[in-house]
Write a structure and sequence with these properties.
Elements: H1 3-20, H2 50-67, H3 70-76, E1 88-97, E2 106-109, H4 127-131, E3 136-137, E4 143-147, E5 150-160, E6 166-177, E7 183-190, H5 192-203, H6 207-210, H7 213-216
Parallel strand pairs: 1-7
Antiparallel strand pairs: 1-2, 3-5, 4-5, 5-6, 6-7
Length: 232
């Protein structure tokens, strides 16, 4: 798949995510079988058949989704990440975007590749979960399209403030995976308006103030690093 093809997919998926997931959870979602986030989902495992690779790549997307599940984070008091199972290749790249101008999405080297690169974020310390106690991925909203060398997936994140306000937004992701079972590239996009509302509630600042890529990689004043479409 060429990057041009992927960007075309992103455009269509962004609309599709808003329409398809806008009505909330649906039957037969790809998150209907919980994943044990304490176990390696298949990173670094060399597989022989196309079918095995496709199944493994799907598990990686399910792992990501489950790692951001509200109940999972509360159970372990942490958020499980790809680097916790050494899922990134040494030269892995990352591209993200909220659709903001004048800063377009850009490629950077994945800053966190191993568990030792930074301590796992505690759920009880998360400004998102403090602002929305049930914040996380929305069950029943995960859709995955895996292939031999990667997968793309869409989902919704959401939660309720103590006053009852519902904040929810979609996310679209692509991961490319090499023959060694490591992620070589990760690309993610979020619903700008939904994330903006989340940032205003959790941080008191807008996406325009916090949404630049370098601010996704370091803690904003008074809070932990604002996870994009997934903290890397």
């Amino acid at each position: 798949m060429t990057m041009k093809t992927w960007h075309t997919i992103v455009a269509s998926l962004s609309v599709g995510a808003a329409l398809t997931l806008g009505a909330g959870p649906r039957a037969h979602a790809d998150d209907d079988v919980p994943v044990d986030v304490t176990q390696n989902p298949g990173c670094g495992v060399t597989l022989k058949t196309k079918e095995e690779k496709i199944a493994r790549n799907k598990r990686l997307a399910q792992y990501y989704f489950q790692g951001w599940n509200s109940e999972t984070m509360k159970q372990h008091d942490r958020q499980y990440r790809f680097e916790d199972h050494d899922c990134f290749a040494s030269d892995a790249t990352f591209r993200m975007g909220f659709g903001l101008e004048p800063e377009p999405p850009e490629f950077v080297k994945v800053p966190y590749r191993r568990p030792s690169d930074r301590p796992p974020p505690k759920a009880s310390d998360s400004p998102f979960m403090k602002a929305l106690p049930n914040w996380g991925t929305v069950p029943g909203t995960l859709r995955i399209v895996p292939w031999e060398n990667g997968c793309y997936f869409i989902m919704r994140f959401g939660g309720n403030t103590p006053s009852g306000e519902r904040i929810e937004f979609w996310e679209v992701d692509l991961i490319e995976i090499n023959d060694a079972g490591k992620i070589t590239h990760w690309e993610g996009y979020n619903d700008t308006l939904g994330v903006d509302r989340l940032f205003r509630v959790a941080f008191g600042k807008s996406v325009k103030e916090l949404g630049r890529l370098e601010n996704m990689m370091r803690p904003p004043p008074g809070g932990e690093a604002a996870p994009k479409a997934g903290t890397r």
